[in-house]
């Protein structure tokens, strides 16, 4: 299913591994974006949950796509299936536990328009980087851009 209103500036790919209620808070955070009407949302959903999607929550976006598949093994698989449906010049991978602040999308688009190859408005993590995964995550963030702020 596809719906088109405007030309999007930023595509956000989401994966619905369970019922739509798992994505509702993320969708509401995207609806609160200052450029929500210039966002494209591409949701990959397992067939068994596709009919739980509340498309009325998607109507304010420039475009939305619902990609239905028989089975989704991982979030990465869902993003791979969603990507061909994106049409905006910039693409973000969203998650069901990530709720971007209202100026997030606008800031991402502006940064890329200014020539940045990688950008993040603000990253928050509940704890300092402990263990190998946390240290790798922090290292990747550190080399990505001098404009990155990390808060604990």
Describe the secondary-structure layout.
Elements: E1 2-4, E2 10-16, H1 24-31, E3 39-46, H2 47-50, E4 63-69, H3 75-82, E5 90-93, H4 104-113, E6 123-124, H5 131-144, E7 150-151
Parallel strand pairs: 2-3, 2-5, 3-4, 6-7
Antiparallel strand pairs: 1-4
How is this structure best described in words?
The protein is α/β, with parallel strands linked by helices and 152 residues long. It folds into two domains: 2-116, Alpha-Beta Complex (Spore Coat Polysaccharide Biosynthesis Protein SpsA, Chain A); 122-152, no CATH class. 29% of the residues lie in helices and 22% in strands. It is built from five helices and seven strands; from the N terminus they run E-E-H-E-H-E-H-E-H-E-H-E. It has helices at 24-31, 47-50, 75-82, 104-113, 131-144, and strands at 2-4, 10-16, 39-46, 63-69, 90-93, 123-124, 150-151. The strands form two sheets. Strands 1-4-3-2-5 form a five-stranded mixed beta sheet. A two-stranded parallel sheet has the order 6-7. The longest helix is centred in the last third of the chain and has 14 residues, at 131-144.
């Amino acid at each position: 299913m596809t719906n088109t209103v405007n030309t999007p500036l930023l595509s956000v790919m989401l994966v619905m591994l369970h019922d739509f209620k798992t994505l509702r808070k993320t969708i509401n955070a995207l609806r609160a974006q200052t450029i929500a009407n210039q966002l494209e949302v591409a949701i990959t959903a397992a067939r068994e949950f596709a009919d739980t999607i509340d498309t009325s929550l998607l109507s304010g976006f420039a475009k939305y796509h619902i990609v239905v598949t028989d089975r989704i093994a991982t979030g990465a698989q869902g993003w791979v299936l969603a990507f061909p449906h994106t049409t905006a010049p910039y693409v973000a991978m969203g998650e069901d536990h990530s709720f971007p602040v209202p100026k997030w999308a606008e800031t991402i688009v502006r940064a890329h328009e200014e020539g940045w190859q990688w950008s993040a408005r603000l990253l928050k993590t509940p704890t300092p980087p402990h263990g190998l995964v946390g240290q790798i995550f922090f290292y990747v963030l550190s080399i990505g851009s001098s404009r990155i702020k990390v808060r604990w």
